[in-house]
Amino acid sequence: MTAAETPLLSVRNLVKRYPLGGGLFSSDRRVVHAVEDVSFDIARGETFGLVGESGSGKSTISRVVTRLEDPTSGEIRLEGTEIGSLSERALRPYRSRAQMIFQDPYSSLDPRMKAGAIIEEPMVVQGGFDRSQRARRVAELLDMVGLPASARDRYPNEFSGGQRQRIGIARAIALNPRLVVADEPVSALDVSIQAQVVNLLEDLQAELGLSYLFIAHDLAVVRHIAHRVAVLYLGRVMEIASSSQLYAAPRHPYTRALMEAAPLPDPVAEASRESAGIEGEIPSAVTPPPGCVFSTRCPLASAECRAAVPPLVEVEPGHRVACIKVAPGAAAPA
Predict the structure, then answer these.
(1) Is a pLDDT exceeding 60 seen at residue 104?
(2) Over 60: is that where the pLDDT of 330 sits?
(3) Exposed e or buried b for every residue in 263-300, given b needs 16+ CB within 10 A?
(4) CB 3.0 to 4.6 Å from 90: which of 86, 129, 151, 199, for a disulfide?
(5) Residue 31 near residue 19, CB atoms below 8 Å
(6) How far is Cα 63 from Cα 32, in angstroms, rounded to an integer?
(7) How many CA atoms lie within 13 A of 230 on its CB side?
(8) What is the C-alpha to C-alpha distance for residues 280 and 102, in angstroms, rounded to an integer?
(9) What rounded mean pLDDT belongs to the chain?
(10) Are the C-beta atoms of residues 249 and 318 closer than 8 Å to each other?
(11) Torsion region of 121: left, alpha or beta (phi above 0 gives left; psi -120 to 50 gives alpha)
(12) Looking at residue 327, what is its pLDDT?
């Protein structure tokens, strides 16, 4: 396999669990099953979307693949190098290759630092830039994200939410990363601003050749920006497909339920339609259901569904589903 064919990011059988015990001598041996056996690839120049309800494991995956947290098990390969088990010292050269845009532009920026210093900080930490190089780079980055040069001398509280997120984006691309992990980057913004930020991300991708791991709970946003999408539920992948495949013909019952529960753009139609949504509550990640984790809320569930965890099976080229009720080539279950 050539370098061009090798996925930029390859995740295999990723597991992340958090112990609930209160300390070394605690008798509580329970764990939170945040991510269980998740695998996916991201190609160079691709936007890969992760969607799901709160508690599905989306943000945990973002923190683990950027090594802000360590995986419990599994493999994370960045440009062919396994980084999941690297020590902090060995990981340092790879930090610049994968950067993160955080969800909340209000809490992710240090209120005591001016915008210029915030954008410059990764260059200071990574090293290799003198003061004049850093100053030129900050000016270049501000221009790239659509902020005036004067913004460098202002504090975060002097900016709107959308402008703050632009500062966060400038910080994320300061070191010319290959991969940018965007953890719900527009969910805290007004709807009128969300499209502007998404368009900026697309422009930067085209200009810089970036790849994105784009995390969101808003299906409409993911549909607009992602080339491929993975649907998560309680730490497991339910479905992976191209954006066009997924939105044209969702195959997993959970994906279908998410689509049906999404608000309609027409307020009159939204107000008049029958209540749509997934019945029941999401189970505890401490004691996930046996077999298919969606079985406790799935209208199609049977005893067979609760007997074993369903594998991700390719039902058509590029479209994989973890559901024993979905046969390859068959229509989505009603």
Answers:
(1) yes
(2) no
(3) eeeeeeeeeeeeeeebeeebbebeebbebbbbbbbbee
(4) 86
(5) yes
(6) 16
(7) 23
(8) 30
(9) 90
(10) no
(11) alpha
(12) 65
Share of the chain above pLDDT 90, in %: 74
Helix, strand, coil abundance in the chain, percent, nearest 5? 30, 20, 45
Residue 311 burial by CB count (10 A; 0-12/13-18/19+): exposed, middle or buried?
A: exposed
**Ordered domains of the chain (ranges, CATH):** 9-97+177-321 (3.40.50.300), 111-172 (no CATH)
Residue 136 φ/ψ region, left for φ over 0, alpha for ψ in the -120 to 50 degree band, beta for the rest: alpha
Decide: 130 and 117 in contact? Cβ < 8 Å: no
Residues facing residue 214 across a β-bridge? 49, 182
Distance CA 288, CA 21 (A): 18
pTM of this structure: 0.90
**Interatomic CA distance for residues 253 and 301, integer angstroms:** 10
Record the tokens describing residue 288, joined without a space. Answer: 């996930």
pLDDT for the residue 329 = 59
pLDDT band at 176 (very low <50, low <70, confident <90, very high): very high
Residue with tokens 């791991």: 213
Residue 85 is encoded by which pair of tokens? 């088990």
Mean pLDDT over 291-297 rounds to 95
Q: What is the mean pLDDT of residues 203-223?
A: 93
Q: For the CA atoms of the chain, what is the radius of gyration?
A: 21
Number of H helices, E strands in the chain: 10, 12
